[in-house]
């Protein structure tokens, strides 16, 4: 039999373990997994000798800025960058314009993806419309919902009103009726505002340097998260604990999981904190992020929580801004976050070799757990006959250093990790049978990416 694509000689991830297998793909699906002694003929053949063939990585948290904020990024450039990292599907977060609060606005974002994405996607809806809007967005296929606790408008505008308990609870009840999850960026806006007032009272300018250390303490984020877990419990809604990287927050979700109250947890969404040197936080003009200097993530604790299953998924929090949107002298109007996607997958692979997590665990937190949580398994997150032929091909032996000369596909053309020593790389990305990246070169076709719905997400 002649296949459309054959991936041969690789060590393939299966639910039973890693096995050397040849994979035959027909159209968009895996058609056969064969003993390597069985030669398979293919119109296109990838020799994965010495490499691992993993189910495609899925990024549960990124910001692609499309529609409406495409000076920062768009579905084409953002998904090209993702493909460079071995990512086969992305979940763009809802701080776009218009915010996907209604079915019409949600569809506008889906259409932007259908026009420009080179890999699969599922935009995350925002539950701040009416209960009817929330129901319609869920029925359309949004994997879950997200809001930001800080403010009532999203994309956030620090001068807008606070989302109070009543409004969050109302949104949670609407999401509960759909059976979907809702994630919330935990935050206590009171202390955010109070810090600004205090600096003003001292007669100082509201620069990042002046206020940053007063925002985002562990207790503030963890306390907000505990409240959210209570609102969710009371509303009968499944809470998706997002941004679980502060030490207290990790203790909290561990406790809630032990009580049987917790659902799913994701972390990182802050890879910079895991990989960048401290100087990155201090570089203005394009490379800083919001982070309280006095409350840095405890890297060892995060890795331990990933290894023991408290953290279910890892997201990139790719959050680029145009260079002129970084204003370190105006902390209330600056962009926060930076471009992560080009090297995210490579960094994760390097962490396997650095002993932070096993290859099997990497597959779970980047693919399997996501697909299971959001009703896409085994179509996604699985290497079995009949599932989508999404592969992330990994070379654990490649030693290299990220350099200025390396490829960058993100619109801002920035690499936060120049100089980072790498122990392993993603060498291939296959999306539904099509080779989208090979050896660092992305061959993306705008519009190839499909809107993958969360049919059975419960
Ligand atoms: Zn984010």
From TrEMBL:
**Which domain of life does the UniProt lineage start with?**
Bacteria
- Cite the Amidohydrolase-related domain residue spans from the record: 52-436
Q: Which InterPro entries match?
A: Amidohydro-rel, DHOase/Allantoinase_Hydrolase, Metal-dep_hydrolase_composite, Metal_Hydrolase
What does UniProt give as GO cellular component? Answer: cytoplasm
State the Gene Ontology BP annotations: purine nucleobase catabolic process
GO molecular function of the protein, one example?
allantoinase activity
One Pfam match, by short name? Amidohydro_1
Q: Which PANTHER family match?
A: ALLANTOINASE (PTHR43668:SF2)
Q: What's the protein name? A: Dihydroorotase family protein
Give the originating organism: Lawsonibacter hominis
């Amino acid at each position: 039999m002649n296949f459309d694509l054959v991936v041969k000689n690789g060590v393939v991830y299966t639910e039973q373990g890693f096995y050397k297998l040849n994979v035959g793909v027909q159209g968009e699906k895996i058609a056969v997994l064969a003993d390597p002694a069985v030669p398979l003929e293919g119109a296109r053949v990838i020799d994965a000798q010495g490499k691992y063939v993993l189910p495609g990585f899925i990024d549960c948290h990124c910001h692609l800025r499309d529609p409406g904020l495409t000076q920062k990024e768009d579905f084409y450039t953002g998904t090209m960058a993702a493909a460079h990292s071995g990512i086969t599907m992305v979940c763009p977060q809802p701080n776009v314009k218009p915010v996907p609060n209604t079915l019409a606005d949600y569809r506008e974002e889906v259409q932007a993806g259908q026009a420009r994405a080179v890999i699969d996607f599922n935009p995350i809806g925002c539950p701040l419309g009416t209960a009817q809007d929330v129901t319609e967005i869920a029925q359309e296929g949004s994997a879950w919902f997200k809001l930001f606790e800080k403010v009532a408008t999203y994309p956030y505008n620090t001068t807008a009103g606070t989302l109070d308990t009543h409004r969050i609870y109302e949104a949670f009840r609407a999401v509960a009726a759909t059976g979907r999850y809702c994630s919330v960026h935990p935050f206590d806006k009171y202390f955010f505002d109070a810090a600004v007032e205090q600096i003003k009272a001292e007669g100082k300018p509201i620069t990042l340097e002046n206020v940053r250390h007063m925002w985002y303490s562990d207790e503030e984020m963890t306390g907000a998260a505990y409240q959210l877990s209570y609102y969710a419990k009371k509303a009968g809604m499944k809470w998706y604990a997002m941004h679980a990287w502060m030490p207290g927050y990790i203790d909290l979700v561990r406790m809630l999981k032990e009580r049987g109250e917790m659902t799913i947890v994701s972390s990182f969404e802050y890879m910079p904190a895991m990989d960048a040197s401290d100087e990155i936080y201090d570089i203005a003009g394009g490379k800083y992020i919001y982070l309280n200097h006095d409350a840095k993530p405890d890297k060892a604790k995060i890795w331990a929580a990933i290894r023991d299953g408290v953290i279910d998924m890892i997201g990139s929090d790719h959050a680029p801004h145009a260079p002129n949107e970084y204003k370190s002298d105006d902390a209330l109007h600056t962009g926060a976050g930076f471009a992560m996607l080009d090297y995210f997958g490579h960094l994760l692979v390097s962490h396997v070799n650095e002993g932070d997590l096993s290859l099997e665990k990497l597959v779970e937190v980047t693919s399997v757990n996501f697909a299971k949580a959001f009703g896409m398994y085994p179509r996604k997150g699985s290497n079995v006959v009949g599932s989508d032929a999404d592969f992330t091909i990994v070379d654990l032996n490649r030693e290299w250093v990220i350099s200025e000369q390396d490829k960058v596909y993100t619109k801002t053309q920035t690499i936060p990790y120049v100089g980072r020593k790498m122990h392993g790389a993603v060498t291939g990305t296959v999306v539904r049978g099509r080779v989208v990246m090979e050896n660092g070169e992305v061959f993306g076709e705008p519009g190839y990416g499909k809107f993958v719905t969360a049919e059975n997400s419960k």
